Amino acid sequence: MTAVLVAGCARRGRPRDERIDADIVKAALAVLAEVGFDRFSVEEVAVRAGVAKTTVYRRFPSRGDVISAALEALGDEGEASPTHGSVRDRLIAALGGIRRGTPDSTRGRVLMHAMGSDDPGLAELVYDRVLSTRSAALRAIVHDGVAAGEVRADVDIDAVMSTLVGPMLYLGMWRMRESVRRVRVEDVVDIVLSGLTPATGS
User: Fold this and answer.
1) Domain check: are 85 and 178 in the same one?
2) Does a structural domain hold residue 174?
3) CA 188 to CA 95: how far, in whole Å?
4) Would you list the DSSP string of 46-61?
5) Is residue 114 part of a domain?
6) Domain-embedded: residue 5
7) Do 31 and 99 belong together in one domain?
8) 117 Cβ partners below 8 Å, 6+ apart?
9) Whole-angstrom Cα distance, residue 66 to residue 166?
10) Is there a single domain that holds both residue 63 and residue 86?
11) 70 and 100, same domain (yes or no)
12) Contacts of 131 by beta carbon, 8 Å cutoff, 6+ apart
């Protein structure tokens, strides 16, 4: 009896194996990228991670928790946005990363599935877990441009974000077309900045 109790206490005190957590999250991302959110199943995640479904639920109590953990890990991926240089150079670097990440990467495929959903709750979740960091970095570039006098102070930041990010998604999605491949990120940035630059004299 004593041996059983001691063994039980040892199991309860055993540190959580972070490798299993990582395997589950990796499997969840693979499932999301392949089948999307509507067809996502914890059973398939368990199979791909090589664990029992109960093991998944001990770590992530619900299907939504598994998805949230996967999206949070996805938010850590991607290239860091530059923090120094001109607004133009920083935008070219940051937006180039978005173009390259759509849609061949796991991140790009998951985002494509999210864009095809009409669930506002899912949209909020994906934005908070995956897009908020990069969005904040782009906003910081524009705000720095305003402070440096490179961007007009009266710009609508939300409109600017849509104008900057939208073309990158288009260029990434239709990359197989020669006419699209020829378009440079620099050209898109220059066109957008032409409408954001303060007037010089009258």
Assistant:
1) yes
2) yes
3) 10
4) HHHHTS-HHHHHHHSS
5) yes
6) no
7) no
8) 36, 37, 38, 123
9) 29
10) no
11) no
12) 75, 111
Q: The domain spanning residue 188 has which CATH number?
A: 1.10.357.10
- pLDDT (tens digit, 9 = 90+) per residue, 141-189? 999 999 999 999 999 999 999 999 889 888 888 888 999 999 999 999 9
Residue for token pair 């305003």: 146
In a domain, 24, yes or no: yes
Domain containing 49 equals 17-74
pLDDT band (50, 70, 90) for residue 200: low
What is the pTM (predicted TM-score) of this model? Answer: 0.71
Helical spans, DSSP H, in the chain:
2-13, 18-35, 42-49, 53-59, 63-75, 87-100, 106-115, 120-126, 132-147, 157-173, 178-181, 185-194
What does the angle CA 46 – CA 33 – CA 161 come to, to the nearest 5 degrees? 135
C-alpha closest to that of 125 among 28, 37, 25, 39: 37
Q: Which two tokens stand for residue 95?
A: 């937006």
Q: How crowded is residue 92: how many other Cβ atoms within 10 Å of its Cβ?
A: 20
